[in-house]
Amino acid sequence: MEKSNKYTLFPINLIEETASILREKKAIFRCYSDLDLSSPLSSSRWRYVGEYTNFKTGKFGLFRSFIAVSYMISKRKNLSLLSSFIGNMINQQNYPEVIFQHDADRLPEKTIEVMRFEKKWGIKSSAYFFYRKAPSWDGDDVDYKLPLDDMKILEREGFEIGYHQNAYELADYKKTETNTILKRDIKFFRENFNLRSFVPHGGRIGPNGEENSDLPHEGPLKNLLWAYNGKCILKDLMWSDGVCEGPLGASDPREQAKTVEKGMRAVFLFHPQYYGTKLREDWRNFPISKMPWWKEVWGL
Q1: Cβ-contact 118, 42 below 8 angstroms
Q2: Residues 6 or more apart whose Cβ sits within 8 Å of residue 20
Q3: Which of 87, 180, 281, 284 is deepest in the core (most CB within 10 A)?
Q4: pLDDT score, position 45
């Protein structure tokens, strides 16, 4: 039985069904830590252009970078004729590359549960945890205790354990205090895991309009891959359930998976707190409950 269904908006098998569609397309499931960052570009803003160019064309070069980025933009803007034309100019892989990402915003044990399911399904993922959770803006706080032993086991089994960077939030958006918290948090993750990447925790704006992604990629963060939410890696398709509680709800990840083609890089961000076997009691309060695809997955 689930320990908590307080946040559950999706059945756990939705992730499996999405993965099954991608497997039929011969997708290769990777972690962020698998990516090749040997590009000669070094700054945090440009290093991932080089990485993406290597992925798309097999070799770095300025013209190749222009072509690769043009392909990415055409894909994300659904410019099918342009993407098809550019696709014929580059040496694309014969398979799609897919990254499943999990941000453990709440209930870190639910992230462990999802990763264990993924192990059974024969895939791996990158999961990001706080060292310490900041108070929620809505006062809806639950215990946030890291299941360290389980996390270490999953890392040994090929999963990636990363840092969900909320130091800016914990410091109340004061950069001097943020650096102190960053050092503490990264020291903890390095002592316990093979830390290789981080993602900022999004969704909150500071008193002067600052965002978590406004932090410079330097100091203790400098040698870590910035995976998502800011100056991050490039991809052709990005799906997230992060808006599922909002007025727009979330789209069906299975439909997004159907659009993935060979040579594409796709990222699917699942927040495990939203997944389980029993729907939350207040589900009618959310606009997503009106969506036909969502009703179908729950049999409503």
Answers
A1: no
A2: none
A3: 87
A4: 65
Closest CA to 103 of 206, 7, 222: 7
SS3 of the chain: the string is CCCCCCCCCEECHHHHHHHHHHHHCCCEEECHHHCCCCCCCCCCCCHHHHHHHHHHHCCCCHHHHHHHHHHHHHHHCCCHHHHHHHHCCCCCCCCCEEEEEEEECCCHHHHHHHHHHHHHHCCCCEEEECCCCCCCCCCCCCCCCCCHHHHHHHHHCCCEEEEEECHHHHCCCCHHHHHHHHHHHHHHHHHHCCCCEEEECCCCCCCCCCCHHHCCCCHHHCCCEECCCCCCCCCCEEEECCCCCCCCCCCCHHHHHHCCCCCCEEEEEECHHHEECCCCCCHHHCHHHHCHHHHHHHCC
Who's near 99: CB < 8 A, 6+ residues apart? 29, 30, 31, 32, 125, 126, 235, 265, 266, 267, 268
* Residues with Cβ within 8 Å of residue 230, at least 6 apart in sequence: 200, 211, 212, 213, 215
pTM recorded for the entire structure: 0.91
In terms of phi and psi (left: phi > 0; alpha: psi -120 to 50; beta: otherwise), the region of 176 is alpha
Please provide the distance, in angstroms rounded to a whole number, between the alpha carbons at the two ends of the chain.
22
Confidence of residue 1 (pLDDT cuts 50, 70, 90): very low
| Measured distance CA(78)–CA(263) in Å, rounded | 16
Angle at 67 between CA 85 and CA 30, to 5 degrees: 95
| Rg of the chain (C-alpha set) | 19
Mean pLDDT of 49-67: 83
The phi and psi torsions of 164 (rounded to 5 degrees) equal -90, 100
pLDDT digits (tens, 9 = 90+) for 239-260: 999 999 999 999 999 999 999 9
